[in-house]
Amino acid sequence: MTEIYRLAENIYRVKHWERNKVRESLLAKYKLVDLAPEGEPELIYAGEDTTVHFENGYKLDFALEAGEQGGFDIRLPLDAEDRLYGLGDVDRKNIEKRGTSALMQLENVRSYGPIPYLMSCRGWAVIVLTTFSHTFDMGATNPDELHIFCKRGALDFIVICGTDMRNALYLQGKVTGRPVMLPKASYGLTVVHNEEATARSLLDDATRYRDRDIPCDTFGLEPSWMETFYDDSTEKKWDYKRFPIWYWMGENAYGANFVEALNKMGYSLSLWLCCNYDLFWKEEGACEEKNDTDEVKEYDDAVIQDAHLTQGHRMDRVTKRNEPWFDHLKKFVNNGAEAFKLDGAEQVIPFPDRVWADRYSDAEIRNIYPVVYAKQMKEGYEEHCGRRAMNNTVGAYLGTQKYAATWAGDTGGSLGVLTSMINYAMCGHSNCSFDMYSGNADTHHAGFLAPWTQHQNWSTWDYPWYFTKEMEESYRWYSQLRSSLFPYIYSYHHVANATSYPVMRCLSLTYPESKAYDKINNEYMLGDAFLVNAWKNDVVLPEEDEWFDFYTGKKYEGPLEFTYKPSKIHGGALYVKAGSIIVMQDWAHSLRTYRPDKLYIHVYPGKDAEFTLYEDDYYTYAYEKGEYATTKITLQGNTLTVYPREGTFAPYKDKHIRLNNMTEDGNMPAPVDFEVIWHNNDGITATYTIPASAYAASPAVVEHM
């Protein structure tokens, strides 16, 4: 039986299965995807046909075959114009996928984040809903055919008939979810400390960052924060010798400990976690159920009645079936922890003999374990303290973007890592980064210009005060730039949250008409304005646009290809597209406690442009209910217009956050003054001032002469 449902305009679900023989996907059961994004799905076909036809500006014919006991084949003829993108972190060599094959199976390093979403440059896309290992053959075997096949699970997939790739990403976000907004500090610099760190050394390092004028927002601790190294149980405790939490204050205490001292200096604290807990008891809603197979009856005529023999034993010695995973972490949140690093550890390896929740094989669970892990961490944190979680995970699958950020695992930084981040972005997953092992300008360049920034230090003494003077200055320059760019970066994360159009955009997404950009994996757009070149100095300035060198102000006309020679401080090329508006602030030691009283509008003239500045409370999920403010800024020729701010939000107050920008009456902070910096050729600029009062009730206009 084949069934086709219209989930929303241009979004369809196709199912072909025997109901009594093959179970529905756990993605649907656990609502990790939304299969009713606009209300009850409309059944538009039910019959025996195994060829499914769609026509929406183009023709798609799917040939379907489902096994009687599970498994399936999906075949789609490819048009000569189809170029294919997506699949997440399953291939660190290619952005464009046609002619390749990919095994969609979570594996350490090889495949940290297989995302079964594939889209064409023409705007159509497919989302496969199985959680079992399966394969996308994208013309590797037959160059004119997309072949998706699986040995187990139901034939169940989504067809998106978009107008272009940006529209396809928007539509898939309705099903898989939008990228989550992280708390404010997460968009600054996170530093993960050496495993030998102590409370004292951590506070000393915090002071050094401040004294050296290096903005830093989050400090992370590696597994040594725990009394038992790599403790994956719910019995974990602080290593009180290294990180004392005074016993007379109780295990839930906040105050008079090193975390409070960090908070006072404007830092958030992140804790490393490992996990192989059976999270699926909670998802099954079975935590309170009694499973009779647990009981072993004692025979009445036994000579010795032994109570400990009356209960069965499980191979899983970690999970407490009546205790959700996040429960044991609440005390650490109460101590002041605001973020968690969900390490690969055991979440990215197979457990071939394990039965999860007494129901599911590891083959069915393996791919979605990281998603459920991130989901329970996000929801547990929000339920416990009412604000956003900063969870970053190495593992990912369909839907991860709405729960957590990701980083590229224990693989450092490289072109391959950048490719994996771009491939995540091509699935609508925007909060991606990598472990920045620092001390080199090219690493600083790529790390600080990622969607979020993490400096890894777990086994090294990779601190800026141990660098050469030049490299410390490079690190400081990029960290200050990152802090200054917060209004720009945060606003584009809001765009990603609303539309699934990612902050990081490869040239193939920004300029989809050109096949030549499919081979370029060392460049990406960061928002609309910045062109970032990383890890390789071969620069391509795209056609039809002019470009300003961000460092020198000199303007170039595309298309242009050349080898860039970076300075000792700047680790790669950074260009701004002519016809751009970039809103910046003065850099701050900590984003967490900072609200500027003035913002800078950098205008790079060329084509007409528009930028929307987003503000919200930065710490809760109230933005999901529309509680945010926007300020629209437009550029038309030599005329810049700033429109009155629209919307509203209530500032967030919390004893841990200790914000210094609160209003006494609890209302939204007032608009700030703008200083307009108009960039001309060869670094020459002109400045104008727009007081907040000038655009409070009506648009304020600057005419550049």
Topology, element by element:
Elements: E1 2-8, E2 11-16, H1 26-29, E3 42-47, E4 51-55, E5 59-66, E6 72-77, E7 84-89, E8 101-104, E9 113-120, E10 124-128, E11 134-138, E12 145-150, E13 155-161, H2 165-176, E14 189-192, H3 199-211, E15 218-221, H4 258-264, E16 268-273, H5 280-284, H6 330-335, E17 337-342, E18 355-356, E19 360-361, H7 362-365, H8 369-385, E20 390-393, E21 405-407, H9 415-425, E22 432-433, E23 435-436, H10 441-448, E24 453-456, H11 469-484, H12 486-499, E25 504-505, H13 507-510, E26 523-526, E27 530-533, E28 538-541, E29 546-549, E30 555-557, E31 560-563, E32 574-577, E33 580-584, E34 598-604, E35 609-615, E36 629-636, E37 639-642, E38 646-647, E39 673-679, E40 685-690, E41 700-703
Q: Characterize the biggest β-sheet.
A: 9 strands, parallel
Give the mean pLDDT: 93
What is the number of helices?
13
Shape: globular
Q: Which consecutive residue ranges, at least 5 long each, have pLDDT under 50? A: 286-292
Our Rg estimate from Cα atoms comes to 26 Å
- Structural category is alpha+beta
Report on the structure:
With 705 residues, the protein is of the alpha+beta class. It is built from 13 helices and 41 strands. It has a 9-stranded parallel sheet with strand order 22-21-20-17-16-15-14-24-23. A hairpin with a 3-residue loop joins strand 26 and strand 27. Helix 10 runs parallel beside helix 11. The N and C termini lie far apart (69 Å).
Descriptors for this entry?
seven-stranded antiparallel beta sheet; 13 helices; nine-stranded parallel beta sheet; alpha+beta; 705 residues
